[in-house]
Structure formats: C-alpha cells, structure tokens
C-alpha cells in the first residue's frame, strides 16, 4: 500500500451565505418573517425600519410645504379659537393619514384579525366549582372529576379510578356519584358525561316535563340510539311504535342537543393569518399586489454607514463594514422574496381567473411545473413561495397552495381539476333529496353524464375530504 498526493480539478455548485439567506426568507411565513426581521433590526445597528406612510407623507409635505405656507400667509382672517364643540380627538382623527400602502380604500373589506381571550374547559369548570357551595371533600372530588374531562367534555376515567386517585378511604363511590351529577349540570350542560347516551340524556333532563316530544326523545336516546345513529328510521318507527310525524318532532328535539358540549368553550389559541397578496378587480381586470403593511420596510442607517470611513480604529471600521454588508444582503434578499412572491401570485391569478370570477367549479387543473415554466423558476422555488403564503380576494383568504390540484380526464378529451370536482360533488349533495340521498355510485353516474370520468372510490375520497358522511348517514325524514 502506497501513500501519495494527487491533484484533481473539478467543478461543483456551492451555496453562498447570501443564497442560503434568500432561500430561507422565501420559505418563511409572514409572521415568521416579521420575527426574523425584528431580530435583525435588534442585532444590526446599520438597519432601521421605515414606514411606507412616512415616505409618502414626507414627499407630500415637501411638495406642499411652500403652497401651504403661502396660503396661510395670504389668508386675511384666522379664527381665534376652535368651535366649542370641537374635541382634540376629532382634530387628531382628521389629521391622521389614512391608507394601507396599497390601492385598497377604507371601505374595502380587508380582514381584521383580533385576539381572543381564551379559557380552557377545565378552567371554566373549576370557576364553577369555586362558586358552588361544596364541602372541602366534595370540592376535592369535583376537582378530580374536572381533571378527568377531555376537550369534548366527556369523562375519560371510571368513577372507581377517580375514587382510587383520591387516596381517602373515607370517601365512598356514592359520594363521587353524587358530586358527578352536580358537575354534569354545570355549564355547558352535559359535561362530564360517560358516553354519548349519557350526555344527551343529561341535556334532556334539563327540559321542563311539559316540553313537547320530550318523552319520545328520551325513549329514542336511552333505548335505540344505535338505530338513530344509523338513520334506520323504518326500524326505529317499528320498535318505538311512533308515527312518522311524531318521530320527526322527537328527532328535531334531539338534534337541538350538543353531542360535544366541551367544544363550546374556547380551548385553543386562535390562529392568525396575515394575507401576503391582495387581489381585487379594477376596471374589469384582476390586479395583484403585495400587502405592503404585512412586511416591515428596511433601509440602511446612513449616519452609521458614514461612520465606517471615519472610524478611529480598524476594529470599529470592520464592525461597521461587516454589518453594512449584512444589511445590504438582507434588504436584497427581502426584495428578491417579494418580487418572486408577486410574480408567482400574478401567474396563479392569471391561470385561475375562472375561479375568481365564478368559484370553485371553474378551478383549472394546475401543478407546480405549470407555474415554474411560466416564471422560469425551479419547482422547488414555487413550492417554497406558495407554502404558508396567503392571498386575500373577494372570495376569501386562501393559501397559495390551494390553487394547485391534480387533473381528471373528461369525456371530450379535456381536463378538470380535483378541486372543481369536489365542489361539484358538494353541490350535488346539497341539492339531493334528504329522504333519498345520493350514493357514491349515483354521484359517479351523474358526474359521468357531465363528461367527468371518475371512479366510485375517487368520488368517495372527495366526499370524505369534504367531511360529508355516506348516504346511509345522510338520510333524513322529510
């Protein structure tokens, strides 16, 4: 075995720090980007934030300063004081510049996202425990019961397990049962139920005895809930000996109950979405622009930048030059991100004008490669720029990825998008006869009649993606 040195020439791609930064910014959501830029502002003294409103106001002030001054001097009469019914709030509001940095006026329905005060179900129940005149022992039992309630409002353990967790031999199972019954009448009614039947019966018990159809509803829930769940109305009428009209009324009462009482209490933090792109129709054309208010505008601090040439020592000069270069890279990467996002969004809107004009049924099949070819970018870039980026339009707010869907062949040799087919399935089901709901096979036949060739299992998959139950569960009494 012999050791030696050997030289070899080769070429390979190397990702520069600037390119890495540009790619990273491209895949960040708006909220993540705001946090990233805020950290950069705090760590780099050569960066500073500017506001689009300030730039516009500064330009307008410079243009109108001489005119305003001349008009004020030429005015012969100046009021000594403001009218008595004028408040400072009115003065401030009148002088406050309006505008969003885009063509959207104050009358446009841009989404306003407000925070919500959230409270867990357990916190809400414990608040009621504190207000209930329980003994110390009963309070401890109630606390254990509340701890065992899931987010749906159901009890997740048996009473024996609750009793065992108490670790007190003097507490009996009857005491736990008694406290449970009191907790089950907390708001929301039916919470801490052991199963669906128990939950519905607890809610029915809160109705006055003279409530119409209460006895029939209680009979159905207590003894024949399985038939009701399967929408087997014929068997239900046979075993209960109820007429169809009576069964309808009893079912209306049952349908007014809440099978998931815990969900009526806010248990999770609201999710905030800031639109990156604004789409609207102006003079018959769809216009696309960036939401300028969603992203901070950065610029170089010229005062600090000038200090680089006048630094007293090399370390200070190197520090300023290094931060200046980083600031320039960041601003350039941010501009590149915004330009890419705008180009891709305009291309998407151009391709999907049918959707913006007429809705989901007119969505065209489109994949990443279609947009990548038009904007001359790689598919991976399109994937990054459409992930967690949102578009606000008159039809609502959509993630850019929403506009991409697979295609299904039509009888005439054309193509239809899976999104359009899902919308069509939803429309057909919405118009069906509740007494005779459409099966997946029937939906397949109806789609075929419209020239859309799909398999029954594909229709079933689309229906399930819309959270629509099968036909046997959609059957209703008319």
From TrEMBL:
Keywords: DNA-binding, DNA-directed RNA polymerase, Nucleotidyltransferase, Sigma factor, Transcription, Transcription regulation, Transferase. GO terms for biological process: DNA-templated transcription initiation. Residues 117-304 form the RNA polymerase sigma factor 54 core-binding domain. One of its GO terms (cellular component) is DNA-directed RNA polymerase complex. InterPro entries: RNA_pol_sigma_54 (IPR000394), RNA_pol_sigma_54_core-bd (IPR007046), RNA_pol_sigma_54_DNA-bd (IPR007634), RpoN_core-bd_sf (IPR038709). GO terms for molecular function: DNA-binding transcription activator activity; nucleotidyltransferase activity; sigma factor activity; transcription cis-regulatory region binding. Pfam families: Sigma54_AID, Sigma54_CBD, Sigma54_DBD. Residues 318-476 form the RNA polymerase sigma factor 54 DNA-binding domain. PANTHER family: RNA POLYMERASE SIGMA-54 FACTOR. Belongs to the sigma-54 factor family. Sigma factors are initiation factors that promote the attachment of RNA polymerase to specific initiation sites and are then released. This is RNA polymerase sigma-54 factor. It comes from Buttiauxella brennerae ATCC 51605. The lineage of its organism: Bacteria, Pseudomonadati, Pseudomonadota, Gammaproteobacteria, Enterobacterales.
